[in-house]
UniProtKB/TrEMBL annotation:
The lineage of its organism: Bacteria, Bacillati, Actinomycetota, Actinomycetes, Micrococcales. It comes from Microbacterium allomyrinae. This is Type 1 glutamine amidotransferase domain-containing protein. GO terms for biological process: methylglyoxal catabolic process to D-lactate via S-lactoyl-glutathione. GO terms for cellular component: cytoplasm. Belongs to the peptidase C56 family. HSP31-like subfamily. InterPro entries: Class_I_gatase-like (IPR029062), DJ-1/PfpI (IPR002818), Prot/Nucl_acid_deglycase (IPR050325). GO terms for molecular function: glyoxalase III activity. Keywords: Glutamine amidotransferase, Lyase, Stress response.
Length: 228
């Protein structure tokens, strides 16, 4: 059984390009399916946030009939979500895997969180499993070494694409584009068709493109952990 740290955004709003605030948080489907897939396979998952704040679900991720099942599962995690681990308290090497679900929230806090960066650099150095989904790869932006180099430069990933952001995300209101930002740091983005289930595995770095990739990303993470 692996010990998995799920790092969840603590942000509940994002400042748009025009300076206005837009409600956000974590994307429920992504958190639920990653958590459910990993725990069903027998792995332990601990939830952590910056400063140990209770994370907020993105309101848009609770819309539609499909959300009923996710709401039920989310309710079963209420105690864990109410008392997440403080990200700053986590030691390097403490977990076998680090997993980042999306929602636009990670663009706000995880992208610049020094403690997440510290843990991700350590994970990259010891070849631990790192899983990122949709906007979760924004958290990888924090993984800058003391010498200024980016820990995931040259790695292949899937991420919520610029096209998807324009078609069904924040569009031109987005304060920045995660795909473009990662490309600028030397990441090799391998996009699938917009809204397709697309997973990229580059060694121990497992990434999914969008909410439609949630189940497949969880399955690939389970496979990678089983092979270690």
């Amino acid at each position: 059984m692996a010990q998995v740290l799920m790092v969840v955004t603590g942000a509940d709003s994002i400042t748009l390009a025009d300076g206005s605030a837009h409600a956000t948080g974590f994307w429920v489907e992504e958190l639920v399916e990653l958590h459910r897939g990993l725990t069903t396979a027998g792995h332990r998952v601990d939830i952590s946030t910056p400063n140990g704040v209770r994370p907020t679900a993105d309101p848009g991720s609770l819309e539609g009939e499909a959300s009923a099942d996710w709401r039920v599962y989310l309710a079963s995690l209420d105690d864990e979500l109410a008392r997440p681990r403080v990200l700053a308290d986590i030691r390097a090497g403490e977990y076998d895997a680090i997993v980042l679900p999306g929602g636009h929230g990670p663009m706000v806090d995880l992208a610049h969180d020094a403690d997440l960066g510290r843990l991700l650099v350590d994970a990259a150095d010891r070849d631990a499993v790192v899983g990122v989904l949709c906007h979760g790869p924004a958290g990888l932006l924090s993984a800058v070494r003391p010498d200024g180099t980016f820990a995931f430069a040259g790695r292949r990933i899937a991420v919520f694409t610029d096209d998807e952001e324009r078609q069904g995300g924040l569009g031109e209101s987005s304060p920045y584009l995660v795909e473009s930002s990662l490309r600028g740091l030397g990441v090799v983005v391998e996009p699938g068709e917009p809204w397709s289930s697309t997973v990229v595995a580059d060694g121990t770095l497992i990434s999914g493109q969008n909410p439609q990739s949630s189940l497949a990303t969880a399955a690939r993470l389970v496979q990678e952990l089983a092979e270690r």
